[in-house]
Structure of Siderophore-interacting protein:
Amino acid sequence: MNISTETDRDLWDRACAGERSAFGDLFDRHARAVHNFLFRRTGSWADAEDLTSAVFLHAWRIRAEVVLFQDSALPWLLGVARNMAANSGRALLRYRALQARLPLPPAAPDHADEVAARLDDERAMASVLCAVAALPERDREVLELCVWSGLSQEAAAAALGVAVGTVKSRLHRARARLRDLVAALPPPAGDPAATNRPSSCVKDVSR
């Protein structure tokens, strides 16, 4: 069956029945969104990658207990990612301890250009996070879910466990405060070429 015709509910039901391929399809469908959310929370590619793996490992382990929102797994996955990011130290320790017990994969070539690009992304994200971090945690979470992750306000409410009206008021307040913070955001030190990248990212969020 073509997975493009299957809802997350269909795939999740198959995964609950033990079909690993169905869970793999869910991973392929949502891993990028989960990873991007975690990168914006941590500012680190490596931590985001490990936490993404930890989110899906947790999802597989408790798949029979998961309640999807309107047949979508993404709000639940981002809710788990949010909690893991908030407790990233413990979550990463648990995941990396498990990873250390597994056989090592074959060594991959070191792609220097890709590594350099990731470092540039981390520097740019650090400047964005500097502005966003000035917001209260509750307002910041709504921005991350609704603006960066693309969830509807209803789905964000499900991920956070709050009312839709609460999400709306937090989002309005966060955007208003972020507009004031954008002007005060300093450029990255020693990186003139990156000056416009972080501010443009923040401006997208504040609109």
